[in-house]
Design a protein that fits this description.
Elements (H helix, E strand, L loop, with lengths): L2 E5 L5 E6 L5 E5 L4 E5 L5 E6 L4 E6 L5 E5 L4 E5 L2 E5 L9 E5 L6 E5 L1 E2 L2 E2 L3 E6 L4 E6 L3 E2 L2 E2 L2 E7 L5 E8 L2 E6 L5 E6 L4 E9 L2 E3 L11 E5 L5 E7 L5 E6 L3 E5 L5 E6 L8 E7 L5 E6 L4 E6 L15
Protein name: SMP-30/gluconolactonase/LRE family protein
Pfam families: SGL
InterPro entries: 6-blade_b-propeller_TolB-like, SGL, SMP-30/CGR1_Lactonase
Length: about 300
């Protein structure tokens, strides 16, 4: 599938959000910023958020809500940049909200029930104004945290744990009707799902010992890691694939629809996908290890996310 390189020089971009005017937002983990990218490739910093901004979603108030992992160590190998581990200046993870007009940053959550957030990674809003987010955890030379899923309200008044004991939960998304929650797991290269029974209430249990109590959807038979995900309007789940770079398109029934291979200077770090444009047929993909934002004419429409249409 052909693509256009929109811009280069980004410092490990993730969490793209397509805006109605053709611009896109990305976060830059190794720069600590929320950045706007125009169609001609111009980059402008919207806000300095610090830490390691990892995922973004538009809230009901029009602000950009950021899952901030608190930072990762930037390493270079084979000409590529990677992100991982826990930097010396790490102070914790958080959920932040950014005013797109003023750049004002508000920190909403740093803990849940007295337990600190470790590495918030990706975020999605439901139709009720609340949001689910993954906490990937942090790692060092002594081991890795178990990952968790949370549900929070956009006014900063309520956060609760909804699943735990996961192996690197990363991408998160809702089905078009909002009745399923999907999560991609990095280290196992698997996708799990839950029934959504009420805002912030999820039920799994159909798979014996499923990660986080979830139901198994699909797992890669090939060597790869999973990063973030997006959902098409028809319900397919599109998961960004690391090491074997591209997008795995998976049906809600757990079948691999196709694998979209992406080669941009051999970048192994294809991390995120989102949609915008006319008919939601323009896909934006982050190639993080070479610092690029890519644009595709996607063969199927992406899902219009909750709150996406409220932007001007």
């Amino acid at each position: 599938m052909s693509f256009t390189v929109v811009t280069t020089g980004l410092k490990f971009p993730e969490g793209p959000v397509a805006l109605p005017n053709g611009d896109a937002l990305v976060v830059e983990i190794h720069r600590g910023t929320l950045t706007r990218v125009t169609p001609d490739g111009t980059n402008t910093v919207v806000a300095e958020v610090g830490g390691g901004p990892n995922g973004t979603a538009i809230g009901p108030d029009g602000r950009a809500y950021i899952a901030n992992c608190g930072g990762m160590i930037a390493t270079e190998a084979y000409g590529y940049v990677f992100a991982g581990g826990t930097p010396e200046n790490y102070t914790g993870g958080s959920i932040q909200a950014v005013d797109l007009e003023t750049g004002e940053v508000e920190t909403l959550y740093t803990e849940c029930d007295g337990i600190p957030l470790r590495g918030p990674n990706d975020i999605v809003f439901d139709a009720h104004g609340g949001f689910y987010f993954t906490d990937h955890g942090k790692s060092n030379d002594r081991g890795n945290d178990h990952g968790r899923l949370f549900y929070g309200t956009s006014d900063g008044s309520s956060i609760r744990l909804v699943a735990s004991e996961m192996h690197g939960p990363n991408g998160i998304g809702l089905s078009p009707d909002g009745t399923r929650l999907y999560v991609s797991e990095t280290f196992t290269a698997r996708v799990w799902w839950w029934d959504v029974t009420a805002p912030g209430e999820i039920v799994g249990g159909r798979t014996l010992a499923g990660s986080g109590g979830g139901n198994f959807l699909w797992g890669s038979p090939d060597f790869r890691y999973f990063d973030s995900l997006g959902v098409e309007a028809n319900g397919n789940i599109c998961v960004a694939s690391l090491a074997t770079p591209g997008i795995c398109v998976i049906s809600p029934d757990g079948e691999l629809v196709e694998f979209v291979s992406i080669d941009t200077d051999g970048d192994p770090g294809i991390t995120n996908i989102c949609w915008g444009g006319e008919g939601m047929r323009t896909a934006f993909v982050t190639a993080s290890s070479t610092g690029k934002l890519l644009r595709f004419d996607w063969p199927r429409a992406g899902l219009v996310l909750n709150n996406q249409g409220s932007l001007v």
